[in-house]
Amino acid sequence: MNVLGPRIRDARERAHLTQQALGRLCGVSRAAIAQWENGTTSPSLAHLQRAADALGVWVSWLTGENEGAGPAAPGEASGSAPGPRGRGVPVIDYVAAGTWDTVTDPYPPGRGMELLVTERSAGGGSFALVVRGTSMEPEFRDGDKIIVDPDATPQPGDYVVAKLEREDEATFKKFRPRGSDAAGQPVIDLVPLNEDWPVLHIDAANPGRIVGTMVEHRRYRRR
Predict the structure, then answer these.
(1) What does the DSSP assignment read for 15-76?
(2) Higher model confidence: residue 223 or residue 60?
(3) What distance in Å separates the CA atoms of residue 41 and residue 102, rounded to the nearest whole number?
(4) Domain 86-223: assigned CATH number
(5) Mean residue pLDDT across the chain
(6) Bridge partner residues of 29 (DSSP)
(7) pTM of the complete model
(8) Can you tell me the distance from the alpha carbon of 24 to that of 74, in angstroms, rounded to the nearest whole number?
(9) Up-side HSE of residue 125: CA atoms within 13 Å toward CB?
(10) pLDDT: is 109 or 2 the higher one?
(11) Domain range 1-67, CATH architecture
């Protein structure tokens, strides 16, 4: 019995990813994912590795090669479930973040992306950004990476990625809600941690939206 298709589907559903979302991460179409899952076609070795990285499982588990490998294997001893390897989220740029929409899918099939593997429980539309510039110093430095979950509702003091309609790119700032204006429209301050940078605002005169909430921050040693 070929276990590859059912295991891709099982791992995808456990990761709360649609076929379209997994296709985006693998650089293929939604139809290609459907064909892998129903056994019509099989992924190339490169796409199989990409799928495993995105789903947070081992290639050997997807192919059924580690059956009975014991507790150290990524799945249960029976090989019936993927192990806690984490899953991949795409590292995107600030222009893409400003148009990020898990329904319209800003990444067409075939466009390659770096994946950042996380063990956190985050929504299927989560993505990663590389921090740029000095506006969020000293807490966030240029080159740090953040993981952002569009499904997470920000609380006062959280860090968010936001998009102002007048700008082409998204921005990463501290979230400070200020209530509503006379028309009932929300008023939000987007606060830089570096006082040399101005506070941005979302309000009726300066419309925008919160794209997602930061759920993980990574800093790498500089040599």
Answers:
(1) TT--HHHHHHHHTS-HHHHHHHHHTSS---HHHHHHHHHHHTS-HHHHHTTTTT--TTSSS-
(2) 60
(3) 25
(4) 2.10.109.10
(5) 83
(6) none
(7) 0.69
(8) 24
(9) 17
(10) 2
(11) Orthogonal Bundle (1.10)
Given a contact cutoff of 8 angstroms between Cβ atoms, the answer to whether 188 and 176 are in contact is yes
The C-alpha angle with vertex 154 and arms to 162 and 118, in degrees rounded to 5, equals 85
Q: How far apart are CA 20 and CA 2, in angstroms?
A: 23
Average pLDDT over residues 196-213: 95
pLDDT digits (tens, 9 = 90+) for 72-119: 333 343 344 445 456 678 888 888 887 765 434 444 444 445 778 777
- The segment(s) of the chain belonging to CATH 1.10.260.40 are 1-67
Query: Is residue 180 classed as helix, strand or coil in its secondary structure?
Result: strand
Give 16's contacts (C-beta < 8 A, 6+ positions apart): 123, 124
Residue 70 has pLDDT above 50, yes or no: no
CATH 2.10.109.10: which residues of the chain?
A: 86-223
Count how many residues are written for the chain: 223
Kindly state the average pLDDT of the residues 125-142: 93
Main-chain dihedrals φ then ψ at residue 203, nearest 5 degrees:
-160, -175
**Token pair belonging to 100:** 């990020």
Beta bridge partners of 213: 149, 160
Tell me the torsion sign for CA atoms 31, 32, 35, 40: positive
